[in-house]
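Protein: DUF4276 domain-containing protein
Species: Novipirellula aureliae
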Amino acid sequence: MNKLVVMVEGETEQTFVRDQLSGHLALFGVTAWPILPGRGGRLQGVRKWAGARADIIRSLNSGNFVTTMFDFYGVPEDWPGRSDTGSLPWSSRAEFVETKIAEDIGVAMGNRFNPDRFVPYLQLHEFEALAFSNIESLASVTAPLGTISSEKLVKSFTEILDEAGTPEAINDSYDTCPSRRISKLVAGYRKRVHGPIVTRRIGLSAIREKCKHFAGWLEKLESIGTAS
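Structure follows.
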């Protein structure tokens, strides 16, 4: 089985990869595990690019396949291409930065870089966007954590989704990113604990159907099983 290192942003993504994604990829001949790279003294979030680039190159030098799972919302402005995405349609922002990341890593590694072994991925716009792939599942997990009934949460979550059009389009500002949309309605929501519970309840098949950028990433990871 081919080995895949998944560099993740935090404990939420770490749990998702360990408890859900890795089992799915094993069916395709891929052994995947998450790592939390060094954060340079930061308690949470994504490192500045110089540190993140060093982490990526270190993992690639191990000889394994490498991918990333960072929230587009949280990527610092000094990452390749990040500051140039403001005028782009939301649907192309992550892919634009992913391309720039691969180009930068290629320049840094020179002829040691094998682009077939690196799959950069940024989650639009945040991990919790995946939770909006099935509103009923999201409401069933979060209703016991607050004072609003499941039925009313379904209505509120549906309004958020309808306004955006698709889960991955839910806004990326401080006040309107997916996790804060949820926590404003459910005071007891804790993303590190409840986010992965929601995605497990929804299932990867439903998530990939609703989240096209995520679906493209998952397809690339599945293909690693037959790569040489």
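Remarks: Residues 2-124 form one domain.
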